[in-house]
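Figure 3 (text version): structure tokens given as input.
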């Protein structure tokens, strides 16, 4: 009787453990910034929203798993992934060789380019390093645009900010002469009321050293199976039109081609 009771207890414990493990495996924790509209941001009622969030939800739906979104400051977004705070970063991150030293990337889910933005009344048209000598140029810290400015504009004052919104505010307020940023958030901002002061300047920045191979999801290098599943889900939502539907909710051009 005692042996039977012990066996029953062990079986029950095993079933509970399997159920618990199964439940955990069916929830994907997605890290995002929450401060990069229209890709990821908080709504007035405190909910994460944006293109990245909707893509994440679509991927989870295709994989038939639950999503849990976790907000993380940009400066710590890769360290938090490596520490196990979440399973994948979905935050409009450029796929660069430098980042590949730390993480694996999915297939691109956006094309990538950067642009300068200046005040409409500044008269700035030439944004070459020589023309921008002595000027103050802003960018979000720990980004590829920050790396680009620090490397290519040694004679300008490069001012770095914790969030993109902070850069935008200082440009609109006249505290900096220009900023460099990702093409789509910059386009979205200058078309908004807050960014109506400003316009794009110069040619698109497409140097692969800084814009990489597009925008991808970042994962820990050991999570090879999850990477395969996410790539397949991305392929599926592009093929079935889900990606385009989400794209068209936020943008007037196709993010896969920037056309």
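Below: residues designed for each position.
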């Amino acid at each position: 009787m005692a042996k039977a009771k012990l066996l029953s207890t062990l079986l029950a414990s095993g079933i509970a453990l399997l159920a618990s493990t199964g439940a955990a495996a069916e929830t994907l924790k997605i890290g995002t910034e929450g401060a990069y509209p229209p890709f990821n941001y908080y709504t007035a009622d405190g909910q994460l929203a944006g293109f990245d969030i909707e893509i994440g939800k679509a991927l989870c739906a295709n994989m038939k798993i639950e999503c849990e979104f976790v907000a993380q400051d940009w400066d710590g977004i890769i360290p938090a992934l490596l520490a196990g705070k979440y399973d994948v970063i979905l935050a409009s991150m450029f796929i660069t060789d430098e980042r590949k030293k730390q993480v694996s990337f999915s297939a691109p889910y956006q094309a990538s380019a950067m642009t300068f933005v200046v005040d409409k009344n500044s008269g700035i048209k030439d944004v070459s390093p020589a023309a921008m000598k002595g000027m103050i140029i802003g960018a979000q810290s720990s980004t590829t645009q920050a790396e680009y400015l620090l490397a290519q504009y040694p004679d300008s004052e490069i001012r770095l900010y914790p969030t993109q919104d902070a850069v935008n505010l200082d440009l609109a307020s006249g505290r900096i002469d220009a900023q460099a940023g990702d093409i789509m958030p910059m386009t979205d901002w200058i078309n908004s009321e807050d960014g109506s002061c400003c316009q794009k300047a110069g040619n698109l920045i497409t140097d692969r050293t800084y814009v990489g191979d597009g925008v991808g999801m970042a994962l820990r290098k050991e999570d090879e199976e999850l990477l395969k599943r996410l790539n397949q889900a991305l392929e599926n939502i592009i093929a079935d039109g889900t990606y385009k539907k989400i794209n068209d909710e936020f943008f007037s051009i196709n993010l896969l081609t920037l056309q």
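The chain has two domains: 27-111+212-250, 114-210.
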